Amino acid sequence: MNKGQKIKWGILGCGGIARKFVNSSRYLDSAEVVAVASETAGKSKAFATDLNIKEAYDGYEALLHNSAVDAVYVANTHNFHHTAVCAALEADKAVLCEKPLAVNQRQAKKMIETARSRKKFLMEAMWTRFLPAVVQLREWLAEGRIGTPRHIYACFGVHRDFPPHHRMVNPDLAGGAILDLGIYPISMASMVAGAKTPDQIFVVSKKGPTGVDTENSLMLSYPEHFVAQLQFGMEIERNRNVRISGDKGQLVLPGPFIAARSVSLELPNETILREFPFHDQEGFRFQIEAVNQCLIEGKTECDIMPLDETLLLAEIMDNVRAQAGVFYENE
How far apart are CA 64 and CA 88, in angstroms? Predict the structure, then answer.
């Protein structure tokens, strides 16, 4: 692809997250959503009409064989990521897949092997990593502003009363807090730890009436005396912030950290605040822009969210789910 070329996107799935992707893409000159598809008859047409998208398909196959589509954003439920991503890769499309990439590490490994064998771009859509506030946080870490990181506290707790068949609590759709919410603090800890494998993982978990996890507390110990204390769930509204402590200071992302608009560097004699405001509907633009740039440069992976780290995150979540006793019949 040539520099300055507009990347034309197709979307599989027409839920709320897909709508946010479309709205965010419109803040960029380098992206255009040209097609959407849904397995639910009529849903894509209504979505496309509402958002003024050219093409709408019932079923994914026609979109994947549309030569005008450069890249595909997979925005369906977790349990369908594996088949949708592999189908898109086999149709020679670049793929950005909503987090988590897969229900388990086995599926994630297959998806990554497919991408690498076909030399196609693939990335797990961890949009938080691309926010300017988080970019600033990484820069301060790299500069050693807080010294050696020793501890991270990350919390992502919400209070929602989901009906029994909602995807968040439906085991047939790979529901539960671990995959949907836990990926954010687990990924944040991994980023700070340098994508190292934890030495130990301790889990305290609570299940809800449908059998999926609803509340979790984790302790992860990493090499070089780095410890992660993570909390996430969907029964209690929490502060949803991140605090990284080093031997010289602290870094703080205020809640909700997944959409952080500021970051603070707290040192013994001063506090430095950096603010990076953006509108709610453009939150994904930073991630989309990074992927577009990777595609223009001919890359098959993104350094900010590499596939080997995605595989590690899947391994960690397999461990957490095993300790929590959460398994899915269709995985």
Answer: 6
Cβ burial of 110 (10 Å; 0-12, 13-18, 19+) is middle
Give every CB contact of residue 45 below 8 A, 6+ residues apart in sequence: 56, 58
Residue 1: per-residue pLDDT = 52
Distance CA 324, CA 318 (A): 10
| Alpha-carbon distances of 233 from 24, 155, 204, rounded to whole Å | 27, 9, 12
The answer to whether the CB of 214 falls within 8 A of the CB of 176 is yes
Q: How far apart are the C-alpha atoms of 306 and 315, rounded to whole Å?
A: 15
Please tell us whether the domain made up of 7-126+284-305 is placed in CATH 3.40.50.720. Answer: yes
Superfamily of domain 129-279+313-324: Dihydrodipicolinate Reductase; domain 2 (3.30.360.10)
Distance of alpha carbon 78 from alpha carbon 99, whole angstroms: 8
Residue-level pLDDT at 161? 87
Q: What is the residue extent of each domain of the chain? A: 7-126+284-305, 129-279+313-324
From CA 287, how far away is CA 24, in angstroms rounded? Answer: 10
Q: What is the pTM of this model?
A: 0.96
Alpha-carbon distances of 193 from 127, 153, 188, 244, 258, rounded to whole Å = 18, 13, 9, 11, 18
